């Protein structure tokens, strides 16, 4: 059996960290639901609504980023490329989740998280296009 490449190991690191992030955000939703005894929806409780959106937003953006990371590792990307996309996406998602958890409105962390996520998408997209051309 062929040994995993360094890029695959880098991808495994970032996929694992993003899965843990999603789990943490999910647990925060459950904690708010239990605290406020809400089974479905957000019952117009701001803290619960914010926890739901922090998880939901990460669930919307993380999967595409992880696909980019995995394909980049398989397509011949170097570990530095994989780490650049993984770290930028992770920092963006954590910043966004913290910013959204603190306030339902605009915040520096929330905006920085969005920008970092978009940068990760750009880095991943450009790297994948580069590796798609033989």
What is the fold's blueprint, element by element?
Layout lengths: L5 H31 L9 H29 L4 H24 L5 H25 L2
Span from first to last CA? 26 Å
Structural class: mainly alpha
Note the run of SSEs as H and E. HHHH
Secondary structure: helix percent = over 70%
The CATH architecture name reads Up-down Bundle
CATH C-level name: Mainly Alpha
Overall 3D geometry?
elongated
Radius of gyration: 17 Å
Q: Largest sheet, described in full?
A: none
**Number of helices in the DSSP assignment:** 4
| Number of beta strands | 0
- Briefly note the CATH topology name: Four Helix Bundle (Hemerythrin (Met), subunit A)
Q: Segments where pLDDT lies below 50 for 5+ residues?
A: none
Question: What is the mean predicted local confidence, pLDDT?
Answer: 94
Note the beta-strand portion: under 5%
**How many distinct domains?**
1
CATH superfamily: Membrane associated eicosanoid/glutathione metabolism-like domain
Structural write-up:
This protein is an all-alpha fold. The chain is elongated. It has one domain (6-132): Membrane associated eicosanoid/glutathione metabolism-like domain (Four Helix Bundle (Hemerythrin (Met), subunit A), Up-down Bundle). Helix 2 packs parallel to helix 4 (108-132). The model has no long low-confidence stretch (mean pLDDT 94). The chain has helices spanning 6-36, 46-74, 79-102, 108-132. The chain has four helices and no strands.
């Amino acid at each position: 059996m062929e040994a995993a490449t360094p890029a695959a190991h880098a991808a495994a690191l970032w996929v694992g960290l993003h899965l843990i992030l999603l789990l943490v955000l999910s647990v925060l939703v459950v904690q708010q639901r239990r605290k406020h005894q809400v089974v479905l929806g957000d019952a117009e409780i701001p803290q619960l609504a914010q926890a739901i959106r922090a998880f939901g937003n990460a669930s919307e953006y993380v999967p595409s980023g992880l696909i980019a990371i995995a394909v980049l590792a398989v397509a011949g990307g170097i570990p530095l490329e994989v780490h650049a996309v993984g770290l930028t996406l992770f920092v963006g998602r954590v910043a966004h989740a913290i910013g959204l958890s603190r306030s339902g409105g605009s915040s520096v962390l929330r905006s920085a998280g969005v920008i970092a996520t978009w940068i990760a998408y750009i880095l991943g997209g450009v790297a994948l296009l580069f590796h798609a051309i033989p």
